[in-house]
Amino acid sequence: MSHCSKCSGKTFYTRRYSGESLCSTCFKKSIIEKTRRTISKYRMIRRGERVGVALSGGKDSLSLLSVLHHLSERLGIQLVAISVDEGVKGYRDEALEHARLATSQYDMKHIIVSYKDLFGFSLDEALDWKNEERDVSSCSFCGVFRRRAIDEAAEKANVSAVASAHNLDDYIQTFMLNLLHGDVARLGWLDPAYADGSFAIRRIKPFMEIYEEEVALFAYQSGVSFQSVSCPYMHEGLRTEVRDFLNMMETTHPGMKNVLLRSSLEVISRYAKFDRKTCCRCSVCGRPTSSSLCSVCRMKTTIKQHVNYAG
């Protein structure tokens, strides 16, 4: 029987990439400490700030809420939960209920915004017309609207930063996707220390140095009750193929994801030296954009034409 590398207790989890064995208690402490070090390394949060937590109701976001709640007194911050109801039948309702239960447990303010209220249509309605369209994935549509919805909720919550539960796997997948799509100029925006003066609210990723597998294990170990249903649109994009490839590489070569994270950060740091260009404000909504019409308003126009036509 193997023993914990920290306290000689019974091994709960072994990190193949480092050879470190941890008992249940030490594993949980390691996730919390890793998160704290990431926040400190990239100066993600300042003492005294009011921080929003993007809370989807899935295992990652509920784990982040738990970790940040644990660290909140030590970091000297106040937390506000932010949830987005995209309007996906049979998917989001369960997640929002888990989010409500968690925020109630922590006696935390919880702000919920919906696509329907903000944009005039649910995600199901927005995507119904494009069942046969494959030029743009459903995730691409949803991502644009979700970012705007979180911005709206963050402004209502009066927070300085919004923490999302993007983990190491998410981060390197996004890096790879930018390369595969030829969006090299966007790499600078992935810099964890990047701040765009055009947007008052910062985006931070405290889990960006933690494997997705370990976040999931933390959730199970902590007894987090999270969403059991997967998004029906999740397998349409290229991300699934990239995820499967990286998981295969990690299985064959333990630590490969950590190597790719370090490499991506090195590349990203060079592109981050160039400022993100926001030449003007959107002629419709007034938000900062690099063209006369922002991506949200552009997509809204396209979707409403099809939605109106359909019904």
Task: Characterize the structure shown.
The model has no long low-confidence stretch (mean pLDDT 87). The chain has a 5-stranded parallel sheet with strand order 5-4-3-6-7, with helices on both faces. The protein has a two-stranded antiparallel sheet with strand order 1-2. The chain has a two-stranded antiparallel ribbon with strand order 8-9. The protein is an alpha/beta fold and 311 residues long. The longest helix has 20 residues, at 138-157. The chain is built from 11 helices and 9 strands. The chain folds into 2 domains: 13-276, HUPs (Rossmann fold, 3-Layer(aba) Sandwich); 278-311, no CATH class. Helix content is 48%, strand content 11%. Helix 2 packs across helix 8, helix 7 packs across helix 9 and helix 7 (168-180) crosses helix 10 (256-271). It is globular, with a radius of gyration of 20 Å.
Within CATH, the superfamily of the largest domain carries the name HUPs
Order of helices and strands: EEHEHEHEHHHEHEHHHEEH
Low-confidence stretches: none
Class from secondary-structure proportions: alpha/beta
- Whole-number radius of gyration? 20 Å
E-strand count: 9
Report the top-level CATH class of the largest domain: Alpha Beta
- The overall pLDDT, averaged over residues, is 87
Going across the major beta sheet, what is the strand order?
Answer: 5-4-3-6-7
User: What composes the largest sheet?
Assistant: 5 strands, parallel
Count of helical regions: 11
- Approximately how much helix is present in the residues? 40-55%
Strand content: 5-15%
Distance between the termini: 64 Å
Instruction: Give the total of domains.
Output: 2
CATH topology of the largest domain: Rossmann fold
> Which word captures the global form?
globular
Give the name of the CATH architecture of the largest domain. Answer: 3-Layer(aba) Sandwich
